[in-house]
């Protein structure tokens, strides 16, 4: 069987059509992250790095408090379009507020997300926003003491 060859003229005629831009993970080794707290200050066992290590065995576990947060400083400007998050059931957030800004600007609210109290990976479409810094605030924890447990956090979109 001969391979299918598409003439260059046919491929070029497709270039003018609007196509959805592919999304990719925006969190990389050069993304600076900060968290509001770590349970018992035990960063080795419960530190922020565990949200990004793709292991089902590790997690970020916040300490007690009324609201917890994560900030992501990207190495360059990005356009976010999705947020993926996996909580531990019983330690999730009923309300997540996303704020973002470009370098040197004040953060502005992007959206409110309403996750379920479940162990499952949750995916949220967010308003496409160009930014250099993203803050995710976890409010209204399902835990009586306000603790948040995140096994996976992903921000998807395009690098600009």
UniProtKB/TrEMBL annotation:
Cell location: Nucleus
Primary subcellular site in the record, as a coarse category: nucleus
Keyword annotations from UniProtKB, A to Z: Nucleus, Receptor
SUPFAM superfamilies: Galactose-binding domain-like
UniProt xrefs under Gene3D superfamilies: Galactose-binding domain-like
Cellular component terms (Gene Ontology): nucleus
Entry keyword Nucleus: yes
Family: Belongs to the NR2C2AP family.
UniProt-recorded name of the protein: Nuclear receptor 2C2-associated protein
Lineage, opening ranks: Eukaryota, Metazoa, Chordata, Craniata, Vertebrata
Name of the encoding gene: NR2C2AP
């Amino acid at each position: 069987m001969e391979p299918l060859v598409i003439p260059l003229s046919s491929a070029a005629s497709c270039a003018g059509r609007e196509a959805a831009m592919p999304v990719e993970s925006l969190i990389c080794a050069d993304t600076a992250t900060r968290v509001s707290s770590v349970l018992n200050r035990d960063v080795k066992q419960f530190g922020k790095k565990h949200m990004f290590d793709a292991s089902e065995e590790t997690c970020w576990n916040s300490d007690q408090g009324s609201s917890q947060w994560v900030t992501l400083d990207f190495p360059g400007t990005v356009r976010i379009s999705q947020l993926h998050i996996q909580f531990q059931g019983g330690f999730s957030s009923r309300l997540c507020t996303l704020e973002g800004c470009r370098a040197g600007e004040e953060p502005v609210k992007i959206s409110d997300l309403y996750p379920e109290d479940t162990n499952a990976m949750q995916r949220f479409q967010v308003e496409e926003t160009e930014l250099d810094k993203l803050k995710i605030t976890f409010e209204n924890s399902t835990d009586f003491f306000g603790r948040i447990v995140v096994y996976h956090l992903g921000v998807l979109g395009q690098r600009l």
